[in-house]
Write a structure and sequence with these properties.
Blueprint (H helix, E strand, L loop, with lengths): L1 H19 L2 E4 L3 E7 L2 E6 L2 E4 L5 E7 L3 E11 L5 E12 L4 H7 L3 H21 L4 H6 L1 H16 L5 E13 L1 H7 L1
Antiparallel strand pairs: 1-4, 2-3, 2-5, 6-7, 7-8
Helix pairs in contact: 3-5
Length: 182
C-alpha cells in the first residue's frame, strides 16, 4: 500500500514537471532557438511555444538594438600623428538568422567580439590613415561616413549582424601634436 502511494506521488510529480516544462514564451524583443538534445532544430517567433519536456530546450537571443563602444582606439593619421579614437557602433542580431548566430557563436556578445571587433579595429585604422590630422578634424563628417561605409561593406557578407549606425565620437591627438599646432 505504501509503495503504491509513493509510486503514485512520484508519477504525479513527474507529470506536473513534464506539463510545466512543455511550454515557453518568447518576448517581442527576442527570438528563440529550439534545441533538441543540444542540436538546433528550429527557431521560434515571439509568443507562446511548446516543446518536448526533458528533450527540448530553448535559448533566447535578443534582437534589440545595442550600442558597443571602442574607447581609446589607437590610430595614426596620414601625416603620422598618433590619435586615440572613440567609436560607437549600433547593431542588432538579424531576426531571420538567430539559429545561425547561435550555432556559430552562442551569443550576440561573442559574435560582436569575434566578428565586429576585428573589423572595426581594422577599418577605422585604414580609413583614419587616409586623412591628415587637420583634415580629420575639418572633415569629420566625411571621415565618419567613410568609416561607417568601410565597416558596413566589410560586414555585408555576414548577415547575422545588422549594422545600424557608426559614430566617430571623439578624436584625441597626442599632446606633442597639440603643442606643435600652438
Amino acid at each position: 500500500m505504501n509503495r503504491e502511494i509513493i509510486a503514485a506521488a512520484v508519477l504525479g510529480v513527474i507529470a506536473i514537471v513534464a506539463l510545466l516544462g512543455s511550454w515557453y514564451t518568447v518576448d517581442q524583443t527576442e527570438r528563440a532557438v529550439l534545441l533538441r538534445n543540444g542540436a538546433v532544430v528550429g527557431t521560434a517567433q515571439p509568443g507562446l511555444g511548446f516543446k518536448i519536456p526533458f528533450i527540448d530546450s530553448v535559448e533566447k537571443i535578443s534582437v534589440r538594438t545595442s550600442t558597443y563602444t571602442w574607447d581609446k582606439m589607437n590610430s595614426y593619421s596620414y601625416d603620422q600623428q598618433p590619435a586615440d579614437l572613440k567609436i560607437s557602433v549600433t547593431l542588432r542580431a538579424s531576426p531571420d538568422k538567430v539559429a545561425d548566430l547561435y550555432a556559430k557563436f552562442g551569443r550576440l556578445d561573442t559574435a560582436v567580439n569575434q566578428v565586429v571587433n576585428p573589423v572595426v579595429n581594422q577599418q577605422v585604422k585604414v580609413v583614419f590613415g587616409r586623412y591628415t590630422a587637420v583634415k580629420a578634424i575639418q572633415e569629420r563628417g566625411a571621415l565618419n561616413g567613410a568609416i561607417k561605409d568601410a565597416i558596413t561593406e566589410t560586414l555585408k557578407y555576414d548577415p547575422m549582424i545588422i549594422i545600424e549606425s557608426v559614430q566617430l565620437e571623439n578624436i584625441e591627438f597626442s599632446a606633442n601634436y597639440l603643442h606643435s599646432i600652438e
